[in-house]
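Task: complex structure prediction.
Instruction: return structure tokens for all chains below.
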Amino acid sequence: MQPVDNPSWLTRLGDAFAWPLRTSHYLELVNPLWTTHALQARVEKVWDETADARTITLRPGRNWRSHRPGQHLRIGVPIGGMHYTRTYSISSAPEASDELITITVKAITGGRMSHHLVRNIKPGDHLPIGVPQGDFYLPDANPVQPLFISAGSGITPIISMLRSLVAQERLPDVVHLHYAPHAYDVIFGNELRALAARHPQYRLHLLYTREPGAAPTAAAAGRRHFSAEQLGEVCPDWRDRDVFACGPQGLLDALESHWDRAGLSRQLHSERFRAQVAATPAQVSSGTVRFARSGVVASSDGVVNLLRLAEDHGLNPAHGCRMGICHGCDAVLKSGCVRDLRTNAMLNEADQIVQICVCAAAGDAELEL
Amino acid sequence: MGIPSHLSAGDIEEFGREMDAIRNEVMDSRGDRDRAYILRVIRWQRSLALGGRIVMFISLLALPLSGLPYAGWPQFLVVLALGSIMLGIAKIIENMEIGHNVMHAQWDWMRDPNIQSNTWEWDNVCPSDQWKHSHNVVHHTWTNVIGKDPDIGYGVLRVTPVQHWRPKFLAQPLINFFLNILFQWGVAIHDLEVDKILEGEKSLASVRPMLRRIVWKASRQLLKDYVLWPALGALLTLPAALVLQVNPAAVALAAFLLVAGGNMFANLMRNVWSNVIIFCGHFPSGVHHFSKQDVEGETRARWYIRQLLGSANIGGGKLFHVLSGNLSHQIEHHLFPDMPSNRYPEVAPRVRALAARYRLPYNTASLTRQFGSTTWTIWRLAFPGGRIKAATA
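Output:
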């Protein structure tokens, strides 16, 4: 997805032959992995980890650079002809010698992209990807005593860290709390248990939140999810450890307030994925529109078009026909939801392009203007 | 001219609602097959362009100067022409079915970062940003409004009797010929509004930044077609010339000039073809023109009617539609400029039926007929007078 800067003189000469395209566009005809104008990956293998989680092995194209364990990548998939981008943690270790990477995707209820990845992707498909990103990784220099806390598919960056530490033969004293609904739902369950059996310094605590048998009362459920008492029981020295946590919003919120209260929030590192899709309000609703580049904030009645709103607040966005024909006013929707005034269609996908002269905010929205 | 008087304001709004319904139905059904279509066209176009250039190089093996046993002018020219025509067709598809339509934002809905209207650059000397202004913003908004739409005769031709005759129009058959063979250069300087500069309405200094950009774009186009590819062809002949002990300089020079000539023919093909198709979109007999008063307080429904009356279609087969960038469906393109072009053939009968129900003209005819009446109009209107022949349903 990212273009490469500073091409060599040879590349520039080659590109002059291909102008206005680049040589890379013609190489793509032969093998999509050879492109430099857009990074792509070929699906090599798919493997079902659990009933609803699948590991996808990818061979990234040229221009890929090795990741740090714990980092994520952006991956694009066309569904119904439309390109959707989501972020997934890389679950393989960078030490893997086969130049392949893996991501592990869990099908979320109502999740369009995760469902597509888990059900429809097959070996041989090509997907656009981004280079590794994110600051959720173990520090290289000083060895730490990590406490890993993960839940569900939040295991993916953690398993990458564990695999990497094992491959480097420097697995330190680790405590790992992992939450899953049932024993059979644990992604990488066999590998984690084998790891715990082989390395005594790795102490694994698998916690099942919906194991059958016990009464599903609120109190019982409360005991099964994260709590201060539970943490004290399984990891009495939690104050001395650096915590790496990844999981659902609720878990991360609970961890943040717990470490905050202990005054140790510096020791907590967590990986959160920003929601890519905003909720769509049922009817016309007022809200706040943020114009990200100019820093201007405006309140919208949900009816006035965004171009007019921007102009009323002193901005002068590029525009043309003001009636939705010329696409001269196209702007990127950073977050939130807007309504197409011609069709009442709701547009709520982050980073999508919207025609601001014929769209109004639906609730809160943020635009790259 | 203007909006037909047989329709009441209520009829017009109802017509607009029906047109919106067609648009929404098609736009909501965009999906995998449309994406597959544009990706397939792009893949074919790039393969054809590269293939054409390679075939031109292969033709050099039959260059008579080489002294190879099977060399000879007829076989050489046939292969060179084949390569050149392949490249010409590739350029036509690139400019029309891909470039024009991508820059109309017809494919932006896919959110594919590589196929976006705001980043697309086409194989044409006109910089894409200037084209998007003169075409998408000005022409598509003000279609056929006298004094507002610079595409009515492009500032140099008199294409409707409504335009006042002036002596300069006597030269228009000749200007038309040159515009036809040099069409991409005409498109390149179109947004500068040269006629206004000549008449002193606009200063040369005000267009200097645009001019610089045109020079920047054109120099890259010329470098590619008339320096780099011919030079590569010349370079490839050198080893053969040395082995065969013929004058390498003569062979290389011949190769350079012949490849450059082949590329020039490809560009000429594209110029002539795109000019013919585009002129047939708005200049045939029966196309309506509008005054500024006609569009005051114009509703979306009235805008639809203006687009319908101001455009003309060309009949033809599937391949013809692709080669014309589906601008053979100029009416549908003007009604729905950001609808994916592969959908125009399927909406055309619905639009035609809708026009018939409201007793509105739907201007369509064969290429011969539309181009014939366009050419006749241009020749006739070089002289004063001329009758308005607005089509009726």
